[in-house]
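Let us practice reading a record.
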Amino acid sequence: PDNTFVFDNLNRIMQIRLMSMFFEASLLVSIASAFTGTSKPNRQNVGFELAGARLPTPPRIKETENFRNAAALSRKLSEERVDKSQSKTVAIIGGGLSGLACAKYLADAGHTPVVYEARDVLGGKVSAWQDADGDWIETGLHIFFGAYPNMMNLFEELGIEDRLQWKEHQMTFAMQDLPGKFTSFNFPPGVPAPFNMAAAILMNTEMLTLEEKIKMVPGLLPMLLEGQSFIDAQDELSVLEFMKKYGMPERINEEIFIAMGKALDFIDPDKLSMTVILTAMNRFINEADGSQTAFLDGNQPDRLCQPIVDHVQSRGGQVNTGKPIASIDLNDDKTVKGLTLSGGTTVTADYYVSAMPVDVLKRLIPKPWSPMPYFSQLKELEGIPVVNIQIWFDRKLTAVDGLCFSRSPLLSVYADMSTCCEEYASDDASMLELVFAPCSKLAGSDRNWIEAEDTEIIDATLKELERLFPTEIGPNAKDGGAKVTKSTIVRVPRSVYAATPGRNKYRPSQESPIDNFVMAGDFALQKFLGSMEGAVLSGKLAAELVCDKSAQRTTNGVRVVHSSITTPGEIKDPTGIIGKTPIAFGGGQQGMGASVSHK
């Protein structure tokens, strides 16, 4: 009883102190802003022009512990640099960010990676291609956060940091009850974490009341005190269940968590693990520039993937496209003997890395592996559907130079790429890129939008845009408003793994029970979940594991499989890859059926 009393009182003291810190930060920043003129109005309804000079990479990004850890792992791999007699050939299945990152770091270590990508384009979930008009059609709206330490290291190592277009440090939301209006959480420059986020939250008076902000503290306090262990332990709870447990008002969900859930994993909060939200908030609170965002200055294949390819090839590695895998062939001891390509050619290597999406990998698991708990647990993981939309208009719309949370029932986030990205820049006409989510019942939608016709998806999107731009789009706009000159729909039926409650315990380690087979991909175990950062980190960890195995160093071993997985599992023949369209290989696809015109 005495210990309980002491703990309860310490908990109350910590809550009061945290609230006090928030108020102190807000007051200090408000006073400083008054004297320096750095205060910004929250509500925005004005456009921003593309700046002549780009903002530099925020310097505090490179001062975080996560960035230093990422840099240390890069150094470990580059300093490995084995000679030719010790170099291993590593076959990497999949040319998305995870596979390319794995190849990059293996090449740095002196090994010979050979990437086999099924499609004719690289990038996986960040792939893009040009249509007949020469426009780049993208699989998704991809934003780079300051809290992406391995991605930031990768840009630095490749010498392409200048390709990131950093935006002002703010998070912009559409006002649900005020069509055409936006409000921002503005992070004051030069203020350290966590005070800059505290100030950003407290100075915005348009989304949450002071009482609602204070009621967020009890749920966030354990995250700050206990860190990753607390975050991981919340994976069994949905966002709504977590809120109820800690007494958070429903309006916090309506104002903040719905938008965050749809942006982070394309899922509504009643179906999303709270670990996803806490992972993002932990980084944003503890890293001063963690929530600051950047856009790549052009298409991903040329501006990001190609520099990785050049780097790998300059060190003796290979990156092959149009090389789908038909089967993983085994030796009698169940290790990998080789890979059979769809054309019948067989390739061999010393080690094999799967960097395929989990849904594709499950179709290729060899029969002798299928009952192993490590592989049978993958049935608990599946990709979440999402749709990416690009709409070209005949005039320039009022735009925010950065990412916007639409807070729409159908739309997650969007950006005017004619304002945000140099390659798409235009002073005369806008091109909006929007994430349509949730788009399946699994994610919280009332219907399966993946199966809807393009025209139906575009019509639904324009209805939502009429609310966001009531004076510029739709029947109430002057002269009938902006007209659509072109639109594209890219469906991704299986995107990042669905982070529904309880999925983390089924995520496999990079190390598998097969001695020469290594797992990569954003669904494999790493703390950044399903994201570009998670994909790069997973590929990097896979490269480290190959290096450690090759050098006969002690490894972390295979992660213990959760007890809910039956041992042994069901014996299954691999179904194989069905079809040759991008969807068959886990990619995004423009068009359906016979209308698919790209690879």
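A brief commentary: The chain has a mean pLDDT of 90.
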